[in-house]
Amino acid sequence: MSGKRKLLFKCVIVGDGGVGKSTLVKRLMTGKYIEQKITIGTDLATYKINYKNHSIVLQLWDFAGEKRFRFFLPNYARGAMGCLLCYDIARRNTFKNLDEWYKIVTNNSDPVIALVGCKRDLADKKRSVTEKDAKELQDEKNIDIFYETSSKTGDNVKALFEELTKKIVEINEIPL
What we know:
The protein is α/β, with parallel strands linked by helices. The protein is built from seven helices and six strands, in the order βαββαβααβααβα. The longest helix has 15 residues.
């Protein structure tokens, strides 16, 4: 097969409510910081990345972080090729709760996982989760990618999704 191929990768975005999952997606989609209200259930967005002369569409399932919606997650996680495991660097409890999110996702799919510390812009003032803490979790769980991002500044947002796409292609040995 020659020429460009179009590929679709399902990616779930999970973590406690208020960590910044929806603002991360909005920043990626619009290039702007747009304050978000609580997600009810799940939001779906698509984002196109050109990688190695191929058009890859990331189907982004932004999952609500509230406990009352958690029972939906196993079904949404099925078939996911990527997962953003998100926490707020200024709220330690959101980091502690990642184990539950990780288990739900990995019990229902085998995605490339990115550990994402959101709200990097608060690092100097309110940080309660260090990069060292995150890297220890990354090693412990054998997580593929780690980034700290800021939806306010745009810091590392595009780089995160580009790296996720690259790793999905590499790990799944998708011929391009």
